[in-house]
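Course assignment 3, question 2. Fill in each field.
Student: A.L.
Task: Predict the tertiary structure for the chain below.
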Amino acid sequence: MVRGLGILAVASPLVAANDQILTPWDLQQGDAFGSSIDLADDWMLVGSPRDDIQGLDSGSVSAFHSNFRGWVQKDLLKAPDGRPGDRFGASVAISGDLCAIGAPQSGTRGWRAGAVHLFHRKGEVWAHSQTLYAPNGAPGDNFGHALDLHGNTLVVGARFADGRESDSGAAYIFGPPLASDKALEGGLADEGKLVFHQRLRAPSEHPSGEFGFAVSVFGETIAIGSWGARREDVACGSVYLYTREQEAWHLHRELWAPVPQDGACFGLSVQLSESRCAIGAPWENHEMNHAGGAYVWARGHAGWEMEEHLKPRKPMPEGCFGISMSLDPEGNRLLVGSRRGSPEVPGAGAASFYEWQGKRWNERRFWQAPVPRAGDDFGLALVINSSQALICARRGNSDGGAGHGGCLFLKVLAPK
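Answer field:
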């Protein structure tokens, strides 16, 4: 392993040809490298929220760049005001030369109120440009637990924000100054900064609904997961879709599982693409307790319709299939993470790779870590594009040793 480059060569006996295992600079046991991940073009961000670089669990984010050698680490990002316990890197999102990083337990505005840090890239260096806080936020909100960025639209979840109910949750939208902002400021609004646009809450707030636990944005659509939402007194979970009209976002559709199950946590994970929305229900019961399920909704001329209900190939107790989701931008390739890949190794994790074949989703590959170990959390964070699947194991180890700092597995996909 070449630690200085943050890369484990493909010649490792643990990886197949054309695959890689990545680790960051100076990885330490317990860093939780791979707790979050995002990918855009030839740049990738991977969070290590338990890194002690600025104090216990202050957190860091590794920035990787892809070249002819594969993925190579180029930068290590830290919060400019990083403190112990911030968990900087618990969530990451990247779009072009802008990235957003969540520190949901930041105490700058109160105990675990949370913060989001923005960085801009110049060449191969990422420089901090702005810190965002929840307008009217409160201690314990966990602003930044989840976030997503598409173009210059940023959506941030605050899972524990209180509305009419305790821990009902909220989501905040940021973007460039609007025409109305510029008019109020006499045309002097800073074009390079993101400003607060709107706060979203569930139309029917529920105690511990955690609206904003998962968020996704693509184009003119935002999806917000609320795994504790209730329907007819069943705490089954829901996903809310919003669309933009002029300068405001409006509720467009509520998505529910066709057969709601109490405690299924529908909406614990959510991912939008150009034409689809993938939703995880990892505590769904079928055949086995908490085997999990995943749903794909497609957007057509008649609006959003459920396309398919996916289930694990081998249901097992506490498998939690659907605990993480990733769609490629075109919406034709899908990764689904599970907490359990085999009955013998609890918590080792797994990832299932699906492709859309014109009439249905077909599972093409099923992956586990080369040496599955209990508690590795392989697949708890993952991302896919048209050519690669990147699967994190936040408690895994690249060489099969005893350390548990985290690592990242890259799988090269055949062209469609």
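Instructor remarks: Residues 1-17 have pLDDT under 50 and may be disordered. DSSP finds one helix and 31 strands in the chain.
Grade: pending
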